[in-house]
Amino acid sequence: MEKRVLFSVIFGAVFFLSFVSSAFAANSRYNVYTPSTYKQINIVQSPKNSRINGYAVELLVDYSGSMGGWIQLAKETLEFILPKIPKTTSVALRVLGENNGQRGFAFVDLCRSTRLVTFFKHENQTNIVKGLQEAQLGGMTPLEFALRETIEKDLRSVKVFNNDKSGAKDKKIILVTDGNDTCGGDPCKYIREVMRVRKDFQIDVVQLGNSTELMCLSAETGGSFYKVDGSRDKFVRAFENTFGVPVGTVEQGIKEKTGTVQPAKPIPQTPARGYKFINF
User: Fold this and answer.
1) What pTM was estimated for this model as a whole?
2) Which residue from 76, 89, 95 is spatially nearest to 122, judged by alpha carbons?
3) What totals of helices (H) and strands (E) does the chain contain, helices first?
4) Of 21, 208, 232, 276, whose CB has the highest number of CB atoms within 10 Å?
């Protein structure tokens, strides 16, 4: 009798542990950076001490639910822009607020959802466009957390070397978003703290909508703030400007591909208080 009871207890314990392991495995597929999922094979990890000759640009894209149309436009725009950037510029892609279609995740998981899609690489347009196409829209915007991952892991792991004496910073983040942090984070406060000890990067913000709350990110880092109020042409020109290609690059690319041209206007620029506020 005692042996039967002992056997039942052992069997029950094994069953419970198997159930917990299965549930955990399902949760780990959410592509969230946590200690338990960081080394999953579906996560691109930042290599240590990577060397780049030229410049490093990381595209950080908001995948909250309202971003669908803009992400599609970004993909179409980058198809023409990325082949035209200098060969010495390495580009990476990280997304934030992504959802892989699973249900039942806690608020804390949704607010740690960010993923490095592709690390810095020369001529990386194929991986970036593919990554933008395959990532799934979510709901939350864990902006501060995503900035921490970008700055403290992605950018810290690369050393950039170039002979440019213009004073331009070697590393740049291009943030594309239509809102502020919805997870209780304070990206402005975080960036102010970081810039007390880090001076090696700048942040350009492509802000969709009328908010200027994230102008602080550009102001603190010496970057540019592009306020896009719903216009496709303004969005395209913001991308051309932040990636440093001539205005009209996308227009010319569309013309060559389809035989039709979409009108574009020059970008007026007004630097102020240490950053450039691009008011279209």
Assistant:
1) 0.76
2) 89
3) 9, 10
4) 208
